[in-house]
Amino acid sequence: MKIKLVTSTALALAVVLAATGCKHKPVGVTPIPHGPGAPVTDTNPYNTLPPGPPIGTPMPPTGGQPIPPMAYNPDNFTKDASTLAAYTILFAYDSAVVRDNEQSSLQSVAQQLQSNPSDQLLVEGNCDERGTEEYNRSLGERRALAAREALAKLGIDPSRVHEISYGKDKPADTGHDEAAWSKNRRDDFVLLIPKAGA
User: Considering the domain boundaries, does residue 47 fall inside one?
Assistant: First the structure.
């Protein structure tokens, strides 16, 4: 008899707790005035300027509306790896820092882009064979981004520069010593020339 009473009481208590004990009202929740995807209006009374083009958007020579840079789609460009082949930059082991002795190569690349404002650039980051595949992909990307940043400091619009990391997949020298590895720690520069009608 006592077991039935204890079981019944425990069951009744569990039902009451399940019905009332789990409910709570969130405290301090700020309601969102706009639903998902609704436009957000600027309520700053000091913001009186109309929105302008994104930074780095080139302006046409005669004024008027800005010309947006062509989005990078490999199908819209012809790749030219030979024009800038002499300006490959090299990196120290396990480093993505552009060395001072590579500045003249970067200046030559920048001059080529300034002379041909419709061209874009692909920076190919590469590594030597040491290290894991994942690490070398990441290091190659950091090297390509370092070149992009250096070119931006030389006046090249970063939207014209694209990066790809090949990690250790495209060695310039297939040897297995420091002489080979030093040639493989590099950024190659490939001109992207817009195709007619693209």
Answer: no
CA distance 22 to 14: 11
Do you know the residue count of the chain? 198
82-92 tens-digit pLDDT: 999 999 999 99
Q: In this structure, are strands 186-194 and 89-90 parallel, antiparallel, or unpaired?
A: antiparallel
Distance between CA atoms of 187 and 198, rounded to whole angstroms? Answer: 27
Q: How many CB atoms lie within 10 A of CB 62?
A: 5
Mean pLDDT, residues 175-180 taken together: 96
92's CB contacts (< 8 A; 6+ apart) are 99, 185
Answer whether residue 144 is part of any domain.
yes
Q: What residues make up the domain containing 176? A: 75-194
Q: What pTM value is reported for the model?
A: 0.65
Could you tell me if residue 115 is inside a domain?
A: yes
pLDDT tens digits for 107-130?
999 999 999 999 999 999 999 999
Does residue 20 belong to any structural domain of this protein?
no
